[in-house]
Write a structure and sequence with these properties.
Blueprint: E1 9-11, H1 45-55, H2 59-67, E2 70-72, H3 102-119, E3 137-141, E4 145-149, E5 167-169, H4 170-174, H5 184-195, E6 201-205, E7 223-225, H6 233-246, E8 251-255, E9 261-267, E10 277-283, H7 296-306, E11 310-314, E12 318-325, E13 329-337, E14 347-356, E15 359-364
Parallel strand pairs: 1-2, 4-6, 6-8, 8-10
Antiparallel strand pairs: 3-4, 5-7, 9-10, 9-11, 12-13, 13-14, 14-15
Helix pairs in contact: 1-3, 5-6
Domain PhoD-like phosphatase metallophosphatase: 1-331
Region (Disordered): 338-365
InterPro entries: Metallo-depent_PP-like, PhoD-like_MPP, PhoD-like_sf, Phospholipid_Metab_Enz
Length: 365
């Protein structure tokens, strides 16, 4: 990445991982950092500071920070996997010694937010020790592009169903009428900015995939990832309808989280083949984290059968997305490395997708 002439880097969350390192992890735990190897979960301010410092020892990451400004938001792993507002991870529920009350988790989250703020270049006001930090914000690049960076962790309601890994029946997400990923205040802020936007391209930079995703047996096609927008279907439908009604031109949604690349058409109604395409979504893969090998054939078989709006999926290689935007088109290149384990692994372009200004939907470039 550092070898390119980039204007900026968008980082959409999961800059660190908060659990115990695995033996196969690229970044190995340093016992001298002060965090116990069997801690299971970072909790103190020192814990989170040490983990950020460990990641910052990566020479290639340092090179990217030297070369480019970063526009960053967090996701869950900066604090705890799949947390929602002050609700601790549901996967902690079977372990009484790990699951925390909202009051207990507020302390851990405050420590996580402070360490993230200390290590992340961001123009934000923060009182050390505060349990909250507003990171949603808007950046304009002339009249070419308006970038809305969102926070879908701090203000969200809990994932429906409390299933392990938040994988569960899509019916729960469809019935989640009161559910929200953004909270009402942030949603209103976003829509106000879209209605008033002078930009040709209007971008939502956020954490989790917005497109619907249904899966083959096993699991059945009625099952999805309820930590994503599939768990909050009514808000997704309301938001996409409002985006269309706002008059904002050429909306593009960016996401990360799931260690794989996706290119999808975002539709008002995913169940209606005739429903119009509102926006294009690009989901960026991970830098070093793998996509579960056992799920690859499931997803690769499910997309053509159940998810025709998904134009492209790749969970087999990892890297980053390079985006080139002008007044006629948005070009996204998938850059993949041959191996995540070798600092010298060669990189190549493995896919190219384009959105023409004025015509929603991605096509191969």
């Amino acid at each position: 990445m550092a070898e390119f002439d980039l204007d900026l880097v968008l980082h959409l969350g999961d800059y660190i991982y908060e659990g115990d390192p695995r033996t196969e992890a690229v970044r190995q735990h340093n016992p001298s950092s002060g965090t116990a190897v069997d801690a299971g979960q970072l909790s103190t301010l020192a814990d989170f500071r040490n983990r950020h410092a460990l990641y910052r020892t990566d020479g290639q990451l340092q090179a990217a920070h030297r070369a480019f400004p970063f526009v960053a938001i967090w996701d869950d792993h900066e604090a705890e996997d799949n947390y929602a507002d002050l609700d601790d991870s549901q996967d902690d529920l079977p372990y009484a010694q790990r699951h925390q009350t909202r009051q207990e988790f507020a302390v851990q989250r405050a420590n996580a937010y402070q360490a993230w703020y200390e290590h992340t270049p961001i123009r934000a006001s923060y009182l050390p020790g505060s349990p909250g930090l507003r990171i949603y914000r808007r950046l304009d690049f002339g009249t070419l592009l308006r970038l809305n960076m969102l926070d879908t962790r701090q203000y969200r309601t809990n994932q429906p169903g409390d299933a392990p890994g938040d994988l569960g029946p899509l019916a729960l997400g469809a019935a989640n009428a009161a559910g929200t990923l953004t909270g009402p205040e942030q949603e209103s802020w976003l829509l106000d900015g879209l209605r008033a936007s002078p930009a040709l391209w209007n971008v939502l930079g956020q954490q989790v995939m917005m497109a619907a995703a249904r899966f083959l047996n096993p699991p059945p096609a009625s099952v999805g990832n309820l930590d994503q927008w599939d768990g909050y279907s009514p808000q997704r439908a309301r938001l996409l309808s409002a985006v269309r009604a706002s008059g904002a031109t050429n909306p593009v949604v960016l996401a990360g989280d799931i260690h794989s690349t996706w290119v999808s058409d975002l539709k008002l109604n995913f169940d209606d083949p005739a429903s119009p395409v509102v926006a294009t979504e690009f989901v960026s893969t991970s830098i070093t984290s793998d996509f579960p090998a056992e799920l690859l054939p499931v997803v690769e078989g499910s997309n053509p059968a159940f998810n025709p709006w998904v134009r492209y999926f790749n969970g087999r290689t990892h890297g980053w997305l390079r985006m080139d935007v002008d007044r006629s088109r948005w070009l996204t290149e998938e850059r993949s490395v041959a191996s995540v384990d070798s600092p010298d692994a060669p990189a190549s372009t493995t896919a190219r997708w384009e959105v023409e200004a004025g015509r929603p939907g991605a096509v191969p470039a």
